[in-house]
Amino acid sequence: MKKLLGLVVLVSMLALLLGGCAKPAQTPKDSSAGGKKIKVVLLVNGTLGDKSFFDSANAGMQRIKNELGAETKVIEMGTDPSKWEPTLVDVSSQDWDLIICGTWQMTENLQKVAPKYPNKKYIIFDTTVDYTKYKLDNVYSILYSQNEGSYLAGALAAMVTTSKMPKANDKKLIGFLGGMNIPVINDFLVGYIEGARSIVPDIKVAISYVEDFANPAKAKEMCLAQYEMGVDIGFNVAGGSGLGQLDAAKEKDRYAIGVDSDQAMLFKDSDPKKAELILTSMLKRVDNSLFRAVKLYMEGKLPFGKSETLGLKDDAVGLAENEFFIKNVPEEMRQKLQDIKKKIQSGEIKVSTAFGMDEKTLNALKDSVKP
Amino acid sequence: MKVLLEAVFSPTFAASILRVTTPILFATLGAVVADLAGVVNIALEGMMLVSAFTGVAVSAFTGSAWIGLICGVAVASALGLLLGYFHLKLRTNIILAGIALNLLATEGTVFLLYIVAHDKGVSSSLASKVIPDWQIPIIKDIPVLGAMVGKQNALTYLSLLAVGVVYLFLYKTPLGLRLRAVGENPDAADSVGISVHKVQFIALAISGALAGMGGAHLSMGYVSWFSRNMTSGRGFIALAAEALGRRHPVGGFIASLFFGLADALSNYMQSLRVPGEFVQMIPYLLTLFALAVYSGRQMKTRRSFK
């Protein structure tokens, strides 16, 4: 019995190995006659199905394939960081034209690998590589002004908490749920606080960090605590954990703001009552930004060797204006948000960023809105 | 500070503790039963996860949360038997087999999730059901107590009930006596005609079922969907709670309540600008503190015997 089991395991492992080897060999080299199809690969350092960040990148790849006619592939590298660099090396030595990866966790890997393959082109999103220290003329970095989009979310939250909307209370207290205490998340927070303050100068913000992007139960408990304290609208920026906030909102019958992808549409069919409470989502349009980058690349205009920050102007961030937003957010609030959006786009309003902000300033900002 | 005190002394805080405790408590009881029978069940985490997934998937297809719960518990219990088969029949090391089951559960549930929900992250596209909240008729009308324990998820009540049931089972029934005998000294138990393997199989099945209840609470009571690796270490915390509770159901109950308290406290303190890193430490800090106090007291009693 034991032997048989061992045999089965061995055979299946072999099959997996062979299967893994077979793929690169099969990829056809159709760079011959006619229009050359460019080959784009996306490396996901995690898995798809996070309902926010990577799924958006994946949607972008779909558009690149359908609208730009590129040959695409998405590789999920899993959650084990030790596998990421070897995969990046493997992919770099294959015949892809463009290699896309994202998040700060990939910066170091890319800084190490990219200089060794000067003929390959790389795009990294939601972070930037260090161009001063390494020779990275073949890397283009995309940063997002999540602070600008969060400014709008904060303004909306402040308007809602001081309004007479059915689920708002009389406390000037709003919530923020962060995945981890790291610069990207704090960039959301800084914009959120500034936006809220622009509407209600003495607003209070209850801030919690889950310190885990995959623990929705803990996130829910934290948000229940926030709603319990008198928060009537909260903003989640916590990847998979953030879904716990939406559950808490439903249980306490309060409002929530989603993040990255349109989280109200996610529950539209399976849980309409929850979807009603998600007034909007602060979208980080990874899909748009990747599409734009690949399009520029095909036109030969993508500026490699530098990083760009995309914001409200480029439609890379913004609030989801779905049916629930139109239905549940009063007309005058929506109008006001439009005005603010225009002011940010024109540069009239400058939103601070958490990148490069020192610990002291950030803590002072957090303390100033402490409930 | 005032806000924190207000929050902590509100009855909803007590309700929050019970809610946080429920999954840990079930798993702790599972750990106690297995450990007393001499088979350490390190696969609690995986069993919880599998049950959490099965519950959601079955409830989505049958439309009944209770059928989901029963199936989840049955599958977790079957995993217990599988662990028993590896350890007792094939003679593998039980720790290694347990680790293997945990790994299998982590990735296997994602694989199955993809098959049933076409999603590798969460099951939100499935219209799964949740175990309802129960109201205790008279208690719910008592002012403070009512808010504390008057209205909770059915599984929370069942977990409290389970403490008593497991206690009675272990200490007041013949099978419980045999189970403890097998754990204490298998050879002696064998010599008086107890089938050691049979008893250990039963213990692992019960242990799996209890862990399964905890897992189902996570995905069908606590939140309303399954997400990958959603147990995030609760099965291991249960092993710690079991050790802290001196392998006794009531001790385990107190220990898991303690973990629940620390966790709930950390959730409340976060939003009040106590540094996040410090707050994350609280559950572990309190555990170390409790262990120190506990072992200190034990040393004292030992000394007084001399």
UniProtKB/TrEMBL annotation, chain B:
<keyword id="KW-0812">Transmembrane</keyword>
<dbReference type="Pfam" id="PF02653">
    <property type="entry name" value="BPD_transp_2"/>
</dbReference>
<feature type="transmembrane region" description="Helical">
    <location>
        <begin position="201"/>
        <end position="227"/>
    </location>
</feature>
<dbReference type="GO" id="GO:0022857">
    <property type="term" value="F:transmembrane transporter activity"/>
</dbReference>
<feature type="transmembrane region" description="Helical">
    <location>
        <begin position="154"/>
        <end position="171"/>
    </location>
</feature>
<dbReference type="InterPro" id="IPR001851">
    <property type="entry name" value="ABC_transp_permease"/>
</dbReference>
<protein>
    <submittedName>
        <fullName>ABC transporter permease</fullName>
    </submittedName>
</protein>
<keyword id="KW-1003">Cell membrane</keyword>
<keyword id="KW-0472">Membrane</keyword>
<keyword id="KW-1133">Transmembrane helix</keyword>
<feature type="transmembrane region" description="Helical">
    <location>
        <begin position="278"/>
        <end position="296"/>
    </location>
</feature>
<feature type="transmembrane region" description="Helical">
    <location>
        <begin position="94"/>
        <end position="116"/>
    </location>
</feature>
<feature type="transmembrane region" description="Helical">
    <location>
        <begin position="65"/>
        <end position="88"/>
    </location>
</feature>
<dbReference type="GO" id="GO:0005886">
    <property type="term" value="C:plasma membrane"/>
</dbReference>
